[in-house]
Amino acid sequence: MSQKNRSTQSTGELILVVDDDEHIRRGAALHLESAGYRILQASNGQEALTLFDESKNKPVMVLLDMVMPVLNGYETCRHLRQRVQGLRLPILILTGLNDESTVDLAFQAGATDFASKPINWAVLVQRVRYALRDREMYLELEQKEKRLSHAQRIAKLGYGQINLSTGIIDFSPEIAEMLGMEGRSVMNSQDFFDLLEPSDQALMQQALDDAITGSGQYLFEHHLQLPDQPEKVILQQGEAKQVDGEWLIIGTLQDITERVQAEEMIYFHTYYDPLSDLPNRILFEKQLNEQLRHDELQAVLFVGLDRFKAVNDSLGHTRGDLLLKEMATRFSALQRDAMIVARFAGNIFSIYLPKVGTVEEVDDLAQSLLEIVAIPVVIGELNLGMSASIGIALYPLEVESVERLLLGADTALNLAKQHGGAQYRYFSSELDGLAQERLLMEQELREAIKSEQFELYYQPQIDARSQEIVGVEALIRWNHPSRGVVLPFKFIPLSEETGMIIPIGEWVLNTACQQAKRWVDKGINIRMGVNLSVKQLQLESFPALVASALEASGLPPEQLDLEVTESMAISDLKNTISVLEQIRELGVLTSMDDFGTGYSSLSYLQQLPLCTMKIDRAFIKDIDDEGNNAEIAKTIIDLSRNLGLHVIAEGIETRSQFEQLLMHGCDEIQGFYFSKPLTAAEFEALYEQTQGRLV
Ligand code: C2E
Ligand code: MG
Ligand code: MG
Question: Within 6 Å (CB) of ligand 1, which residues are found?
Answer without folding.
Answer: 459, 475-476, 487-489, 492, 505, 508, 531-533, 563, 593-594, 617, 650-653, 670-672, 677
